[in-house]
Design brief:
Blueprint (H helix, E strand, L loop, with lengths): L2 H14 L1 E3 L2 E2 H12 L4 H15 L4 H9 L2 H5 L9 H27 L1
Antiparallel strand pairs: 1-2
Helix pairs in contact: 1-3, 2-6, 3-6, 4-6
């Protein structure tokens, strides 16, 4: 698995995540970004929860493999056997959060 694939899967979960009635999380975030150039922090928490649920079933080697595709992971020359998977998982969560929010900004700006 590659980072862009992970981002696509997470984004799709956010697109289908219902807030209330007909509103979806993703469309709400895009509207807020387009209007205020920001979105509510509680939605960032929901994004992070979605990222964690995506990563939870992945084994340590997959987490390390994904982490190696990030800027931080590419710059680290530590042998995989010497890495702490939980630390890589935490770093990966933050990298994916950045990727998802960057994608949201790009989509919101393209829509305007």
């Amino acid at each position: 698995m590659y980072i862009p694939e992970a981002v696509d899967v997470i984004r799709e979960k956010l697109v289908t995540h219902r807030l209330s009635g007909r509103k979806t999380l993703w469309s709400t975030i895009l509207k807020q970004i387009a209007k205020k150039d920001s979105f509510e922090g509680k939605y960032a928490d929901t994004i992070l929860e979605t990222i964690r649920s995506f990563l939870k079933p992945l084994n340590d080697q997959t987490i390390i493999s994904l982490w190696r595709q990030t800027e931080t992971g590419m710059g680290d020359d530590t042998d995989d056997e010497c890495l702490f998977p939980d630390c890589c998982r935490t770093d990966l969560e933050m990298e994916l959060l950045k990727e998802i929010t960057d994608l949201a900004w790009a989509e919101a700006k393209d829509a305007t």
